[in-house]
């Protein structure tokens, strides 16, 4: 019984402790939210929304302030009162018998506190917006006032930089100042929202006027100080050049100058109406066309001193080239009687003659135009400079043609000497072969010998023609020379194989005394020798001799070539 009582007491003690801890924690939470409420009230919104708090406001700004004031009274104060009521209710419930109501009421207190803080922030932001607008407008008033003073000072002190555009610029400035007065009045009345609409347009138009004031002088200056002087100078210069018989490809320069004067007037009118971009575009066109006209006149001025010396030099060059071409054609026609001209030399020379006639016509045309003072000097210089280059090219071609035929006679002489040399060589080869005293000559050698002999005969016929083709003769000379060299090699091979075979037969006969097996090889070799197959005969004996006495043939061959070299 006593133990049960102790258990009950322990449970009761734990319950009491738990209730105490819960109460303490809840009260701490309530105190924290009451502190947040106190901080919100410490912002003194009551003073900032008092009846006489913002007497300077008017218009939409006053309307916005009153809406904030209603929100303060209806929402903020209600939320603050609800926080107090819920805090009192929770305190009573904690010390009574309504602990179960504490938790939902604590949640309501948290919501009410959060709403109170949110309302405070919203009201603070609303008031800051009104204050910021006031500060911004006060700052804008100072900036715009200073800027307008600068504009007026610039337009009064430096009006010469703007010409007639200054009237329109002053009118725009006056309009801005009128609207600026409206803006300052609205700001002074505290109607910041309406003033903001005026300020936005005012700042945009002020920036545009600032750009105009910066751009106009740069556009106006050439219209006043450059273009009129340049156009007058071009007009006077053109008239003076025409009096001195200068001519131009586009002979409407005076009309172009008049058109540029009109464009200059249009640009000035656009600028006066503050159409700055249109005026700037017209100025660019004026600059470009004026520079072009200067270039046209300067080109003729630069060309005039070059005309006379150039015409003199081209005339002399042309006469020389024509004379040289006539002599070249005469020489080619003479050579064509005795030689075949394979590279169209005569046709090419006559083609050059046609080019020279065309150049002469161009030259004569310019001479006539200069004589009657209708020539355009720059075109004459360009045309005759090109003609001079063509004359140089023609003379180079003349030299090439002349070089290609200059050696025909000397080539013919050399060809005849070479033919004579070939004839001597073929006869020498024939005597060499006869001196070998061979039983006969192989057919393939004879065929090649007669081939070369025929080639030499054909070459002789070609050289002895009344009209010869040196190009073909040169080709034949090269062929005969190669074939003669080959014939010399074949003759040497014939001599060597025949001589070595005879020596080897004698040596083999001596070896047959001790080596009867070599007799068959000797018989076969003799048979091939009698058939004029000297290389075949030598090969049969070489194998047989080397078989019975290795190295003997190599020694015999070496001795032979040593003797041959010694006797040569």
TrEMBL record:
<feature type="topological domain" description="Cytoplasmic">
    <location>
        <begin position="23"/>
        <end position="568"/>
    </location>
</feature>
<protein>
    <recommendedName>
        <fullName>Septation ring formation regulator EzrA</fullName>
    </recommendedName>
</protein>
<feature type="topological domain" description="Extracellular">
    <location>
        <begin position="1"/>
        <end position="3"/>
    </location>
</feature>
<keyword id="KW-0717">Septation</keyword>
<feature type="transmembrane region" description="Helical">
    <location>
        <begin position="6"/>
        <end position="23"/>
    </location>
</feature>
<feature type="coiled-coil region">
    <location>
        <begin position="470"/>
        <end position="528"/>
    </location>
</feature>
<dbReference type="GO" id="GO:0005886">
    <property type="term" value="C:plasma membrane"/>
</dbReference>
<dbReference type="Pfam" id="PF06160">
    <property type="entry name" value="EzrA"/>
</dbReference>
<keyword id="KW-0132">Cell division</keyword>
<dbReference type="GO" id="GO:0005940">
    <property type="term" value="C:septin ring"/>
</dbReference>
<dbReference type="GO" id="GO:0000921">
    <property type="term" value="P:septin ring assembly"/>
</dbReference>
<keyword id="KW-0131">Cell cycle</keyword>
<keyword id="KW-0175">Coiled coil</keyword>
<keyword id="KW-0472">Membrane</keyword>
<feature type="coiled-coil region">
    <location>
        <begin position="318"/>
        <end position="411"/>
    </location>
</feature>
<dbReference type="GO" id="GO:0000917">
    <property type="term" value="P:division septum assembly"/>
</dbReference>
<feature type="coiled-coil region">
    <location>
        <begin position="127"/>
        <end position="154"/>
    </location>
</feature>
<comment type="similarity">
    <text>Belongs to the EzrA family.</text>
</comment>
<comment type="function">
    <text>Negative regulator of FtsZ ring formation; modulates the frequency and position of FtsZ ring formation. Inhibits FtsZ ring formation at polar sites. Interacts either with FtsZ or with one of its binding partners to promote depolymerization.</text>
</comment>
<keyword id="KW-1003">Cell membrane</keyword>
<keyword id="KW-0812">Transmembrane</keyword>
<keyword id="KW-1133">Transmembrane helix</keyword>
<dbReference type="InterPro" id="IPR010379">
    <property type="entry name" value="EzrA"/>
</dbReference>
